[in-house]
Amino acid sequence: MQTLTVDLDTRSYPIHVGPNLLERQELLAPYIGGRQVMIVTNETVAPLYLDKVKAMLPDHMVVSEVILPDGEQHKSLDSASLIWDALLEQGFNRRCTLIALGGGVIGDVTGFAAATYQRGVEFIQIPTTLLSQVDSSVGGKTGINHPRGKNMIGAFWQPRVVLADTATLETLPDREFSAGLAEVIKYGLIYDATFLEYLEARMDDIRAYDASVLTEVIVQSCQIKADVVHEDETEQGVRAILNLGHTFGHAIENALGYGAWLHGEAVSVGMLMAATLSRSLEWLDDDDVSRVKRLLESAGLPVEAPASVDTTRFIELMRLDKKNISDRLRLVLLPALGEARVTEEAPESMIEATIDHFPKR
Amino acid sequence: MQTLTVDLDTRSYPIHVGPNLLERQELLAPYIGGRQVMIVTNETVAPLYLDKVKAMLPDHMVVSEVILPDGEQHKSLDSASLIWDALLEQGFNRRCTLIALGGGVIGDVTGFAAATYQRGVEFIQIPTTLLSQVDSSVGGKTGINHPRGKNMIGAFWQPRVVLADTATLETLPDREFSAGLAEVIKYGLIYDATFLEYLEARMDDIRAYDASVLTEVIVQSCQIKADVVHEDETEQGVRAILNLGHTFGHAIENALGYGAWLHGEAVSVGMLMAATLSRSLEWLDDDDVSRVKRLLESAGLPVEAPASVDTTRFIELMRLDKKNISDRLRLVLLPALGEARVTEEAPESMIEATIDHFPKR
User: Hey, which bits of B157-254 come out as E strands?
Assistant: First the structure.
């Protein structure tokens, strides 16, 4: 097990990462203040891990659960209401603790319920997907979707502790595991060339669920996110580099309808597009772009864009991206592998050519 | 005009108090960052002050409004949703500002919407009732009711500025004005004997809406609340003295059904009961109790309990109060006028006798 301490605002919390953490009572009990615990999970995760988490809790605790249906469409006000209702029906007081057991949807909606129940109660995250382990563990973003937009209602609310059990990743579908790796690769590309090399060298071990390599990968990813967020807590500047590949990726997700491709799959193609565009600006060379492509492929990620989206439509959809302030497209590009910059330097004709010539199928 | 600065956590904000503040553009404009402003008010307040507030906003701003129905039953998730929907329909971004124009319900629900829209946007309070001017202006509590309890969903969220215009009190029904005075008198009783004397000396001027006296009264009240909250931001100890009269008062409200008596009316009788009980403990003398009674009467507040609630029922309802941890009733009592203490010293027989002998009608 490795432990990383996230230090934001006035409060810090540990992220414990390693195999079989859900068998270690001592990792959870010290972080629970009152006697009432509500575990929020979903129908997919509950049969796998709910009993394990319950067994981690001391006998004198009142433990209850809310089991939501699985899926992004349940990151909703209705789900938050279900949690509030359950807390109130069972007389949970303001010293209670909510535990989010599941992926990003469960983490976000549970965190939001915790942030707003009786003006804020304790919150613990047990992320069970690679994406949520490397993304939602750091930053304190909680929230729900609104019919008019994702994450439109929410709050910043920090967990008391995060347990990222690498063993839970073995029950994750391959496609979702690879999608999580897209975010991992992103951290290397934007911030840490050494980490990128590590990923290149150990991708086979990662995909074979080697516990110590996975632990290292998750800790490094969380550390990079923590460093970037720490430099820019208010999201005005450098934090935007966390969106590498996202403007391209959102265009793909939007064109195909959300859910057709996993977010990480769209980001994979988006990052390769960003690298290619960085090559056009002569920031990267051909070898750099090939390295990015090989790494994404080795992670089981797509490196070709959907043929059904033509270039004009693609650029239109990129313009919808909220990061665009002026007329020029504002993008995260790579001056070098391991370094990112938010820029409007790429002329539209160059962006167009990049998308036009990008391999499709 | 007087200005009080509230200094909590990492952020401080001014409360401006005085007559006709709603005619002074310069008090609002400096606190609005973006270009989008949403005014939230209700059907009673809108015809009186909405146009005035709109006229305070610079021309280049996009100004919109949500007008809720009047009443405590609209301090609900539905109202918060109406605000979120309006913000999203009109494309309000995370640099927008929400202005709460109205009493406590409007302030609480608007503050909650602001705390949670896109994980938190700017918030300005223009309280138009005496109660909200002296109570909700300080402390940062926002929230909505749930069918199972008041203020069960909410967040701490501080306003950028508060404008308490004493002229708005002249349109307030007499009963509501008096109910607000109950909270004002409470601040004197628990914290400041000099302020109490001031209230005794100037009650006629207060009830005649003398602007400079009202301004002084509101500033002093907010200052006392700020001092008490500052000493105890996490609500573990001394802050509880703000509940003087509330355990008795809640019993009355609960017995008669919420809304039969105004909260301040129930608190008035509750404070006199607390003073009487303090007399039984020999903390106060007869003269002290008479002074409290005369002051409440001069403010137009009730000093007799409802005859329909017998003593046994009264004590039962007091036990429901959330402040009770042990078997003994935990109450805020007065060691002297201008000084309060949370105590379990009063034996139940003494509490019973106090309620039993208390004047009723």
Answer: 161-165
